[in-house]
Structure formats: C-alpha cells, structure tokens
Amino acid sequence: MHRTLYTPAMIETFRTCRRAYDLAFLRTMPETEKLSVICKQVILRGLAEIHKGKICSVTNVQKFMGQNWPLDKASDQLKDKDHATKAFLYVYKTLSRYVAKPYASPEQKIVGVALKVRARVPHVRVYLEDTLDLILWSPEEKKLEFVDFQIQPVRAFDPAWPNSSVVVRKFLAERLQTRWQFDTLSLVTQRVGLQEYSPLRNNIEETTYRLHWSELVKTLEEIKAFEQVPPKEELMRQSAHCWHCETIENRIASAQDDEQFAISLTA
Fold first, then answer.
1. Which of 56, 58, 229, 253 is most exposed by smallest CB count within 10 Å?
2. Where are the alpha helices (DSSP H) in the chain?
3. CB-CB neighbours of 29 under 10 Å
4. 21 pLDDT band (50/70/90 cuts)?
5. Rounded to whole angstroms, what are the CA distances from 22 to 48, 67, 118, 183, 224?
6. What pTM was computed for the model?
7. What are the Cα distances from residue 125, in Å, to 2, 6, 76, 119?
8. Consecutive H or E run containing 200
9. Under 8 Å CB-to-CB from 69, ≥6 apart: which residues?
10. Torsion of CA 189, 38, 71, 253, to 10 degrees
C-alpha cells in the first residue's frame, strides 16, 4: 500500500532517479548523518530560537551551543578533533552573526517559526507537507513571506522552471490564505554563514504555477503507482552510473560495516 504523505525532497528524488527513491524512501535506511547535516540541524534550531525571542545575545548563543551541540555525533563523523572543532565554531559564529542582524524587519510580524504545513491534494488522495523555517506577515502591505534558510550556496532560480519545493510552497500558501488574507506572496531563500548573503526570491507567475502544478500532480500519481509495484529489473538498468544511488548505497554499506564492527567488539 502506498503512503499518503509526500514532501518536496521525495518528489525531487523520484524525478531524478526512481531507484534512488526506492532506496531512500521505500526501504529502511540506517540512521547515519553527515556532519554538514548535523551542522544545519543545529543552525536551524538556533535560528528558530532566535525568531522566538529565546536567543537575543551572543551569551545566549553560547548557552544554546553548550546545551544543543551533539558532541557524540560530531565526534563519530570526524575522528579528527580539529575538523570537529571547526564545525562547532562554524555553527557558533553563524548563529552569533545572525543574532546581531536577524532577517525580519521591524515592519514584519513573525507568525510562524519552523512550522510544518500540510494540505490535501484534491482528487489524488494524498497530502503534501513542508517545513517553513520562517513565515513573515506584513498587514499593511498584505504580504506573506516564506523564508527558507540554507548553509550551502544557493542556485539561481529560473522563474519559468520552478523546482518542486517552490510549487509545493505556493500550493500550501493558498491553503494558508484563510488565515492571512495576502495579496502578495514572496518565497525567499536566505543563505546564512560567516558572511552576509543577499536573499534569493523565488516568486512565480500564476500561469506558470498552474502549468507546473499539473505536472506535479501527475508525478504524485506516478509515485503512487510506483510504490504499489516497483519495477525492480528496470530500476537496476536505469541506475547505472547514478551518483544518487551510489551515495545512498555507500551510506548503507558504511552503516552495515559499523554495525558489524560494533558486534565484533561486544562478542
């Protein structure tokens, strides 16, 4: 039986490589995390605390890092203590820099922080869900703004070819219009780090959205059919020289090696 909840990451993976989707979402994946993922998780958690008003100074950042930095996980990922220290300092300096100059302006009201939004897709019997890092509301302008924070370089956006994340967030915004009667929707990707970066706005025209929305619905229907009977032999042929599959398979193999090593130590 197919699932009923999908995210932009699942849709993008399916469109890129169906075997990678099979490996990543239809099988039990080992719970291993790259150091970059760990850093991003801590940064996003810290940004949420800043937007909630719980972190207001560098002193608060220091306390937050002491309570939330996953030392054991970071040490497992990097045996080199110097690299682990650099990762810690990167997160600490990023949050310290951001708390001094948050993204939201005084004219904007913060109405959502790390908010999971879910909505049903008509006629497909599935739900789409995404986590919105920051939602800003400007009552006078009747403008709603979704802000997505990234730590990696942000790619330029082609308004004629929006990715799944942009289309899904546009769809979710329509469902939120009952709460905030906005006339303008702004989708922003903001990179955070050790220097200042300009925000990237990912707005799309209504006609373009409608065109790509129908394609996304078609993809959801294909995913449902694929999950019922995954074509295993076809997947093996299509996955030749696919770096997405290789990355996932290496992750599985690494986790299995670690598990065998742990068993041998306790045997």
1. 229
2. 8-16, 18-25, 35-51, 58-68, 71-77, 81-100, 164-176, 206-228, 232-238, 243-266
3. 13
4. confident
5. 32, 36, 23, 40, 12
6. 0.84
7. 11, 11, 41, 11
8. strand 200-201
9. 42, 88, 91
10. -170
